[in-house]
Specification:
18% strand, Helix Hairpins, Heat Shock Protein 90, 3 domains, alpha+beta, 437 residues, five-stranded mixed β-sheet, single chain, 52% helix
């Protein structure tokens, strides 16, 4: 009975068997009680027979008060020559009015009597009983009939409690196993031995554990990478400080500039780490507004023109559809700037970077395309990983720009796509896809 894999089936079978068992016991107890009460009905029948036997109904011999019992049946017989008073009666102290044939009720001395009367040849026979006596007998019979069921109720309750506890024991095991889950123990729950009703729930928990495990491992890797990335510039700055302290006066200016550049790189890395954290957590979106993309793209290009001129890269626009996106302007600026900055740094000298804004059904595209050396297929699979830097140039970036842009785009239901150019020219196409709302 308890081997069923369905919790519903297990409880249904157990309760049904218990109900049937208690029902049989109750029926047997009721049968015994009714059988014992039948003897009392037999006694009543004997009393009636004693009243109507030959010579018992003598209306001239009054009964004493001691001989009369209130629960006695009253039998009255009218002969053809009798008037209101019957000639034969079982109790001369109780003379009931003559009732109608069949069942009826009459009153005598403030009490109700239930009567049955019939015509037998030349005699009219009437048998009556106090209603209070009949009611008392009915209550007594009902009580003794209900007694076996009442006696079995505690047994039924106890058995149901034990059965339910045994049936729900798998839930206790699953609960204890779930309570053991923490960041150091992200093992999936065993859903094979669980009841059928719980398997979808356990599958959902296991999928959540799997996603959580991936996130925890990613965060651990992020912390390790961040520590490694910060350790190198901090060690370099420490070495530069030592060199600056012991450097000749003529060399201090040069070494101070190197230290300043190291501080700037470290500060930029910390800022990007904070930006990535804010992007992945998601902002409050309290400053949402309609941001015109043509103006935003023009501003980003203007900010990066000095870098492009220094690298010998020609930056311009191809298409600027007049479209606005409801977002936080700073987020859109960071996304676009990261893509254009990457294109300028990795495209190479004398390269060209073209920025476009397209409106498509239900979405808007910000496209940054260059004609640089391109990117390998192996690197394409990892470009959105944190701290990943493609090996196509000697640029010393942090490897966080694309990760930040992807996280910000995801906050708005969009994404960033990086691919090779499809027109036969070497280079990379980076596209921000955002939904129009």
């Amino acid at each position: 009975m308890f081997g069923a894999t369905s919790l519903h089936r297990r409880l249904s079978i157990a309760v049904a068997v218990l109900a049937a068992f208690v029902g049989v016991l109750g029926a047997f107890g009721t049968f015994l009680v009714v059988s014992s009460l039948a003897t009392e009905f037999d006694s009543s029948l004997r009393d009636v027979a004693a009243h109507v036997r030959s010579g018992a109904l003598d209306g001239t011999a009054p009964r004493t008060a001691a001989a009369r019992r209130p629960e006695d049946l009253v039998v009255q017989i009218w002969s053809a020559a009798d008037g209101v008073r019957p000639s034969k009666l079982s109790d001369p102290n109780v003379i009931l009015p003559k009732g109608a044939p069949g069942f009826s009720s009459v009153s005598f001395e403030g009490e109700r009597w239930d009567v049955f009367a019939l015509q037998a040849a030349n005699e009219y026979i009437q048998i009556a009983e106090l209603r209070s006596v009949r009611t008392r007998n009915a209550i007594r019979v009902a009580f003794w009939t209900l007694l076996p069921v009442l006696a079995l109720l505690p047994l039924l309750v106890l058995t149901i409690v034990i059965t339910v506890r045994m049936s729900l024991r798998p839930l206790d095991r699953i609960g204890r196993r779930t309570a053991q889950i923490d960041l150091n123990n992200l093992q999936a729950l065993d859903a094979k031995a669980a009841p059928d009703e719980l398997r979808p729930f356990l599958d959902s928990i296991n999928r959540m554990i799997e996603r959580l495990s991936v996130l925890v491992n990613a965060e651990r890797q992020f912390i390790a990478n961040a520590a490694h990335e910060l350790r190198s510039p901090l060690s370099a700055m420490q070495l530069q400080m030592d060199n600056l302290r012991n450097a000749p006066v003529a060399e201090r200016e040069e070494r101070l500039d190197a230290l300043q550049r190291g501080i700037w790189r470290t500060s930029s890395l910390v800022s990007q780490l904070l930006g990535l954290a804010r992007a992945e957590i998601g902002g409050t979106m309290k400053s949402l507004g309609d941001v015109p993309l043509p103006q935003l793209v023009s501003d980003v290009i203007a900010d990066l023109l000095p870098l492009a001129a220094d690298r010998g890269v020609d930056v311009g626009v191809l298409v600027l559809d007049k479209v606005s996106v409801r977002a936080v302007e700073a987020d859109l600026r960071v996304m676009t700037k990261n893509l254009v900055d990457n294109a300028i740094r990795y495209a190479g000298t004398d390269a060209r970077v073209d920025v476009s804004v397209y409106q498509r059904p239900g979405k808007v595209l910000i496209e940054v395309m260059d004609n640089g050396p391109g990117i390998t297929n192996a690197d394409l699979e990892h470009v959105f990983e944190r701290f990943f830097r493609a090996g196509v140039s000697d640029e010393q970036g942090s490897g966080l720009g694309l990760s930040i842009s992807q996280a910000l785009a995801a906050n708005y239901g969009g994404r960033v796509v990086l691919s090779k150019r499809a027109d036969g020219v070497s280079g990379v196409v980076a596209t921000i896809e955002l939904p129009l709302k």
